[in-house]
Write a structure and sequence with these properties.
Strand content: under 5%
Helix content: over 70%
Distance between the termini: 53 Å
Strand order of the largest sheet: 1-2
Number of strands: 6
Radius of gyration: 21 Å
Number of helices: 12
Length: 357
């Protein structure tokens, strides 16, 4: 199927499959799916800036759907999310200007793809390392991350100014309590700074930033995994909206692609959000690490195919990207069905017979 705005032919079945996968994993991992969307579109041959702009638009729609679902189960810390958004907004404008300059220099594609490979490989490797390390601990501590001490040190940082004076009002403290995220006290400049860094990378790479934000919230801020999932999605809605606006103004969004993928994404989100209620945080993190690591390898193969002119590498990249992500969706579905089946199984009565309902 030819997409005139992006000027490229893509099989719509691949877009539907990508949308379904992204929706499922977005709801389960708490990410917009930009590492899959933009990486997938690049693998499918979509021009880099269209992959970025179109990916951000889909991210916004998918994250909004999943945020509303996570809100119902109490997994969204809106205060933490709002603080990060304060830093995210200016960073997105800065990243968009940098991308435009990179395009003018003719190096946008390589920079985006190489940066993707580095970040995905580094994050995926660390998450898997942390999971394997956690398996050696005793059962009650297996869900605890290896950087718990780092999170405590971050919470204790005292960054000036310690208060902000408003005309006609008393000074407001720059320290807040975030009970849902299990943070007793933290300087607001820390989440704002994190939001800036994540927003810049999100705008540069065409992602909602969730694949970076989720590990940062878990390993640096010490936020519980399920709360990090929901809060990350809330922040991604804002990131995706602003990014979509910026790339739409420069005509780098293919709405037809977005519509096709969003239709499938909305169905997958139902599955992903429901599964988070039955899986412990350590398991979520391990599956997430495998997924982003495979996405990094896929983008690297695509870049190698373009550099060498060896076409089969590009095909292998597509198979790896969709194959691993699709396998994760199947795992999520199996977890959901088996855990739901156990919860519905009638418990035996004191006499040894099954209870009636």
């Amino acid at each position: 199927m030819f997409f005139p705005n992006a000027g490229v032919e893509v099989n719509p079945a691949l877009l539907l499959l990508l949308g379904l996968i992204v929706g499922t994993l977005s709801g389960f991992f708490g990410v917009g799916g930009g590492f899959l969307i933009t990486g997938g579109l690049l693998v499918f041959g979509v021009p880099p800036l269209f992959a970025v702009g179109t990916g951000l638009t889909l991210i916004m729609g998918s994250a909004l759907i999943n945020t509303l679902k996570h809100r119902k189960v109490g997994n969204v810390d809106f205060k933490l999310g709002a603080l990060m958004v304060i830093g995210t907004v200016p960073a997105l404008f800065l990243a968009e200007r940098l991308n435009s300059q990179l395009e003018a220099w003719g190096v946008a594609g390589p920079v985006i793809q190489y940066t993707y490979v580095v970040f995905l490989a580094a994050l995926g490797s660390f998450i898997l390392y942390d999971y394997l390390k956690a398996r050696k601990r005793s059962s009650p501590l297996r869900d605890q991350v290896s950087t718990a001490g780092l999170a405590q040190r971050v919470h204790s940082l005292r960054i000036p100014p310690h208060s902000i004076g408003l005309p006609g009002y008393v000074s407001l403290s720059t320290y807040v309590s975030l009970p849902l995220s299990r943070i007793q006290r933290i300087s607001i400049w820390i989440p704002i700074g994190i939001g800036f860094g994540v927003g810049f990378l999100a705008g540069l790479l065409g992602a909602g930033g969730g694949f970076i934000l989720l590990p940062v919230m878990i390993y640096v801020l010490g936020v519980p995994t399920v709360v990090a999932v929901g809060t990350g999605l809330f922040q991604i809605v804002i990131t995706g909206f602003i990014g979509t606006l910026l790339y739409s103004l420069s005509n780098h969004v293919d709405l037809l692609m977005v519509i096709i993928m969003l239709a499938a994404s909305s169905m997958g989100s139902q599955l992903g959000v429901a599964a988070t209620r039955f899986v412990d945080g350590a398991r979520i993190r391990s599956l997430f690490g495998i997924t982003i690591l495979s996405a990094g390898v896929a983008v690297a193969l695509k870049q190698a195919a373009e550099s060498s002119g060896f076409g089969p590498l590009s095909t292998l990249a597509s198979i790896l990207l969709l194959g691993v992500a699709g396998a994760m969706c199947i795992i999520v579905a199996v977890i959901l069905m088996t855990r739901k089946g156990r919860s519905r199984r009638p418990s035996p009565s004191p006499t040894g017979r099954e209870g009636t309902h």
